[in-house]
Amino acid sequence: MTASVINSYFSNPGGNLMSKICEICGKGPSFGNNVSHANNKTRRTWHPNLQKIKAIRQGTVRSIKVCTRCIRSGHVTKAL
């Protein structure tokens, strides 16, 4: 996912959702309902499990926010 797609999709003047997006795959918050036993529905948000790591990006070491799935599957080269 490119940065322009992420910026247009998560542009939110009231909040900062960009801090909750994986810089590798673009995974961001998803929205849905809590459903109680009495079937009451309230809105809620699920955030991806983002970790701030030092990684090699474009030949330089940068601190980026990456979801654990990208770290586990090897999409990120960690800086030693």
Task: Please provide a written account of the structure.
A two-stranded antiparallel ribbon has the order 1-2. The model has no long low-confidence stretch (mean pLDDT 85). It has a single domain, classed as Ribosomal Protein L24e, Chain: T (Roll), CATH 2.30.170.40. The protein contains two helices and four strands; from the N terminus they run αββββα. By secondary structure, it is of the alpha+beta class. It starts with a helix and ends in a 7-residue tail after the last helix.
CATH architecture: Roll
Number of strands: 4
**Which runs of at least 5 residues are low in confidence (pLDDT < 50)?**
none
Rounded radius of gyration (Å) = 16 Å
Count of domains: 1
Judging from the principal axes of the Cα atoms, what is the shape?
elongated
| Average pLDDT, all residues | 85
Q: Any descriptors?
A:
single chain; 80 residues; alpha+beta; Ribosomal Protein L24e, Chain: T; two-stranded antiparallel ribbon
Tell me the layout of helices and strands.
Elements: H1 3-9, E1 30-35, E2 41-46, E3 50-57, E4 60-67, H2 68-73
Antiparallel strand pairs: 1-2, 3-4
